[in-house]
Amino acid sequence: MEVPCVRVTREEGEATRSRLADADLIDDDYEIDVEDGELYIPVSDPDAVPAEFTVVSRAVPERRSQTMPADLLGFEPSYERLGDVVLLDEDSQERALEIAQAIVDSDLPVETVVNKRSKVKGETRVRDWEVLAGEGTETVHREYGCEFALDLDAVYFSPRLATERHRVAEQVSADDRAVDMFAGVGPFVVPFAKRGAECVGVDINEDAIEYLRKNARRNGVADRLTAIHGDVREVAGEYADWATRLVMNLPHSADEFLDTAVELAGDECVVHYYDIQHEDDPFGPGERAIRAAARPEYEVTVENRRVVRSYAPHEENVCLDVRLERSTTQ
């Protein structure tokens, strides 16, 4: 029987599956099919599929009966998957253990279940985790054809930003010279380098930089990616006037690094500036801060204003794509 399916390349399969699952659009009565390097993901409502995806009609196998955590619990638990690790955010230890056991007993292909024990903290942006099932917190996450080894206990990583990272990466060309000022394990600069760009990733977290170097080798881009451990404000002088593209993904405090961004920027540079602000004016504070830091040396053009996700009640995580062009009047 033919059913509507989203057709994507194998490299984009996991990120696409995650987006469709978040929108509750996957038809669980059928299996995901693979042929000639493309995936066919059955969907329950083709009219609700985002326009960027291609929907086709295809005969796919009916899904064999799978036991999911909800089948064992009697309710749908909330969790995220990162590689072969499942992430919980449960205040109740009893409930967390109950969900963890159901996940282990289900047919989900996972090795480890962890529960958040703290918020992101400190300048290295890590959080504490409690291992409820399995061993250790190291895993390998895959998105859009890249692989990222990481240890949840040692580095910050959010699987929720995969679509946003891909959006930015698609703007990158082989002519770019890109600096990620808070690079982590490389989810921005590794894809940039795979597109041929010359990249620099800086992070204050030494563990993250070690993983960034491993991930550069893992993805075959070590020759185009330089990983630097340190405060970007202290190392920027080595790359002054160099960058054609900057990533500033440090919401809440990216504005404190705008002078450094201006120092790194070449004659023309696109800045991807991430911020968290109240829903009443999510873009204004960032725009004003960027203009104050860049003028009069640069002409400032905001090319895109994007809400990435809801961060908290009445707070939005946003991105500003801003072009800086050195002023000819200087």
UniProtKB/TrEMBL annotation:
The keyword Transferase applies. PROSITE patterns: SAM_MT_TRM5_TYW2. InterPro entries: MeTrfase_TRM5/TYW2, SAM-dependent_MTases_sf, TRM5-TYW2-like_MTfase, TRM5/TYW2-like_N, Trm5a/b_N. The keyword Cytoplasm applies. Signal peptide: none annotated. This is Class I SAM-dependent methyltransferase. One of its GO terms (molecular function) is methyltransferase activity. Gene3D superfamilies: 3.30.70.2580, Met-10+ protein-like domains, Vaccinia Virus protein VP39. Coiled coil: none annotated. One of its GO terms (biological process) is tRNA methylation. Residues 79-326 form the SAM-dependent methyltransferase TRM5/TYW2-type domain. It comes from the Archaea. Keywords: Cytoplasm, Methyltransferase, S-adenosyl-L-methionine, Transferase, tRNA processing.
